[in-house]
Design a protein that fits this description.
Blueprint: E1 20-32, E2 36-42, E3 47-53, H1 59-63, E4 70-79, E5 94-105, H2 122-127, H3 129-132, H4 136-158, E6 162-163, E7 181-183, E8 191-193, H5 199-207, E9 212-221, E10 232-242, H6 246-264, E11 268-269, E12 276-278, H7 279-286, E13 299-301, H8 314-321, E14 325-331, H9 339-351, E15 358-365, E16 367-371, H10 380-390, E17 397-403, H11 405-422, E18 430-431, E19 433-437, E20 442-444, E21 451-453, E22 480-485, E23 488-495, H12 500-509, H13 514-520, H14 522-528, E24 535-538, H15 542-549, H16 580-585
Parallel strand pairs: 3-5, 6-9, 11-18, 12-19
Antiparallel strand pairs: 1-2, 1-4, 2-3, 4-5, 7-8, 9-10, 10-24, 13-14, 14-17, 15-16, 15-17, 19-22, 20-21, 22-23, 23-24
Helix pairs in contact: 4-6, 5-14, 13-14
């Protein structure tokens, strides 16, 4: 028999009444009833209530024991008195009458309690993460994480994929974020980079003749934290396939995600075949390439309205003449909303850094007119044209913004989310997936004005590669795609460029010489020169998938040992200073600059 337990803390039921058992776990909670002392004993599996009488020699030991001490309890299974059952627990109809206990490990006073699910400051939770993880909700999230990853592995194997591991120490690559660098002792003055993604290696696997690859891959990026992004490191389901087109990748990923989300959530999935939305249309209709399709609000372009003579809103008209755009959001049947509702939206927009949101409500008393601060500037005919463009009706309200295309997209994207939330339009019981496709191959850098890759530099451009118009690179679209769920970007992917001559040409547009390409991507360009299959893939973020399935708002809640917002591990004290002897061994000298 096991020294510490005959059962775990969720196993015992009425079937074991009368049996002597042994349980081990943490002292979760104590309740003193005078002559009786009740304790909840907790392990990884669940809770069991135990009771001890004051005449028992071990009573005083338990009475003085601090919560979270680890003990072994020996006792007899008895039926709980009627009215004291806890039907939410599997063990809720029985309890253990304690015969003896053994204290395995005493706890100090707790910096944060484990019992209860109160919120505590981030620095306390992360410094004492081992305590935080004992809390029920956190413990369940991490178990869910393990089960999801196991299920993904199983499904990928069923789909004909094989799992391979790619290197962690590699060379720097332009993935769009800062690298974490590792100095080489054997090659002084040179550095490895931790992979931002296994991008080049997974392509090389395809070039090596393997057909379908996947990996639960750790990725490292020196970037700032966000609610849906961990600083430092994260995990993704990395996959790649040979001899495929874009739709082949879509079929695999849709099947996987449908099976995954149906297994681990009771929420409805809006579409079994995910909608395909072009990047252009996504930015136009939603102001972002990460649209939450649960929100029915749509953005419309009404720039041409401000070229009409019967519109006298001069601030917008002058701005449009200088190249600005005007776009708007229609909220349905909001005529009865108080003035404060509209003014608060305008105030909120100013707090976001915009100049505000102009608005009016369409009404009809005889003729069609607009009620609101700027309504007087619009004729009946111009309002009818706006209603036609936006599919608006009498009683609807219109919020609109004027400015540069990028600024208008930014403010209306977040305004759409706020209006959808404030008006209760978003269905929290649903997952709504979509593909964003047809990304531009290149874009203009806002600061330098130079042309750069918009997404993955190793992507295949669309169209006949022999007839591409390289003189107008901003018009070239790529076989690049994102998958989005409920406004969260789960992944980016692409059909890869497997033609070396074409790769040189595309990198030349982005400012790389042939020699630079050969130097930075020597392994890739060399491999592609010896016969490469058409191939493509994607890499859904594991952490973000789990965050959605666990119904959490922050990735920290589904990560075992996350860093804080400043990329610090408060529990282990990382990053930390190292010994001078270690630096000398690496032939590195620090030049610390005073602030």
């Amino acid at each position: 028999m096991n020294k510490y337990r005959t059962h775990n803390c969720s196993e015992l039921t009425e079937n074991e009444i009368g049996k002597e058992v042994k349980l081990s776990g943490w002292l979760h909670r104590k309740r003193d009833h005078g002559n009786l002392l009740f304790i909840d004993l907790r392990d990884h599996y669940g809770l069991t209530q135990c009771v001890i009488e004051n005449k028992n020699n071990y009573f005083s030991i338990i009475e003085n024991l601090k919560p979270e001490s680890v003990i072994t309890v020996s006792g007899k299974v008895i039926k709980r008195e009627k009215g004291t059952e806890n039907l939410e627990l599997k063990t809720g109809k029985i309890e253990i009458s304690i015969i003896s206990i053994e204290v395995l490990s005493e706890s100090r006073d707790l910096p944060m309690p484990v019992f209860g699910e109160q919120n505590y400051p981030e620095d306390i939770r992360l410094k004492y993460r081992f305590l935080d993880l004992r809390r029920n909700e956190m413990h369940k999230n991490i178990i869910l994480r393990s089960n999801i990853i196991s299920f993904i592995r199983s499904e990928m194997i069923k789909l004909g994929f094989l799992e391979y591991q790619t290197p962690i120490l590699t060379s720097s690559s332009p993935e769009g974020a800062r690298d974490f660098l590792v100095p080489s002792r054997l090659n002084p003055g040179k550095f490895y980079a931790l992979p931002q993604a296994p991008q080049q290696f997974k392509q090389l696997i395809m070039v090596s003749g393997f057909d379908k690859y996947f990996q639960i891959a750790p990725c490292f990026r020196d970037e700032d934290a966000r609610a849906d992004r961990s600083p430092g490191e994260f995990y993704q389901l990395d996959l790649e396939m040979s001899f495929v087109e874009q739709e082949d990748v879509f079929k695999v990923v849709e099947k996987l995600l449908l099976n995954l989300f149906k297994k681990f959530s009771k929420k409805k999935i809006a579409n079994d075949r995910f909608p395909r939305i072009t990047f252009h249309n996504s930015m136009l209709k939603y102001g972002t390439d990460k649209p939450d399709l649960r929100n029915p609000l749509i953005i419309n372009d009404i720039t041409n309205i401000f070229e009409r003579d019967d519109v006298t809103f001069d601030i917008f008209k002058k701005s449009v003449k200088k190249g600005s755009v005007v776009r708007c959001i229609v909220t349905k049947n909001t005529k009865d909303k108080p003035r404060s509702f509209f003014d608060n939206i305008d105030k909120w927009a100013k707090e976001q850094g915009a100049s505000g949101l102009a608005y009016f409500t369409i009404e009809q008393v005889g003729k069609i007119s607009a009620k609101g601060p700027v309504g007087k500037f619009f004729s009946e005919e111009s309002l009818k044209e706006i209603m036609k463009i936006c599919n608006a009706k009498i009683g609807d309200s219109i919020f609109f913004s004027c400015g540069s295309k990028n600024n208008v997209e930014k403010i209306l994207s977040i305004a759409r989310n706020k209006l959808g939330t404030d008006l209760g339009l978003i269905n929290d019981k649903e997952f709504s997936f979509c593909w964003i496709i047809d990304y531009p191959m290149f874009e203009t850098d806002e600061l330098s004005g130079k042309i750069k890759f918009s997404h993955n530099p190793f992507s295949m451009p669309q169209g006949d590669v022999k007839k591409l118009n390289f003189s107008n690179p901003l018009e070239i679209k790529a076989y690049q795609y994102d998958i989005v769920c409920n406004g969260v970007e789960l992944s980016s992917g692409a059909i890869r460029n497997h033609i070396p001559e074409l790769m040189y040409k595309l990198f030349e547009i982005a400012g790389y010489s042939k020699n630079q390409v050969d130097e930075k991507f020597s392994g890739m360009i060399n491999a592609l020169s010896y016969g490469a299959p058409p191939h493509g893939g994607i890499a859904p973020g594991i952490d973000r998938i789990i965050m959605l399935l666990a119904n959490e708002k922050n990735i920290r809640e589904v990560t075992l040992f996350p860093m804080n917002q400043n990329a610090q591990d408060l529990m282990m004290g990382a990053p930390s200073e190292i010994e001078i002897s270690q630096l000398k061994e690496l032939q590195i000298k620090l030049d610390k600059k005073k602030n």
